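Retro notes, structure queue

What went well: the backlog is down to a handful. What didn't: a couple of records were mislabeled last round, so from now on we paste the full input next to the output in the thread. Example, using DUF5681 domain-containing protein from Sphingomonas qomolangmaensis:
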Amino acid sequence: MSGSVARGGNGRFAKGQSGNPEGARTRRRGELMNLEEINRTILRVFTSRTQMMIAGKPQDVTLLEANVWGLASGKPSNRLASKDVIELTKDAASFLEELERREKRRERGY
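Corresponding output:
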């Protein structure tokens, strides 16, 4: 804070005086994603590869497969999160498949 801005005896700024004479910084809004971009992002993330131990051996699997394995193993940790990952991936794939079907129909003139 600048030393040139005076405060009154009660520690408050004088009426009409700001504690930040340079003003608030300007904020930029992030780009909003449309539904197609969100679904493509979900699929890209959950089809990325990771390592996990299966039957005592390291395996290269997708994040989706890792979540399915986690549910199949019966481990109680993050069961709800694993179900959500699987549901999100399924919904994203269904959305994009429907989008492709509509585009093909439109190209054919239906």
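Agreed that this is the format going forward. Reviewer comment attached to the example: The longest strand covers residues 49-54.
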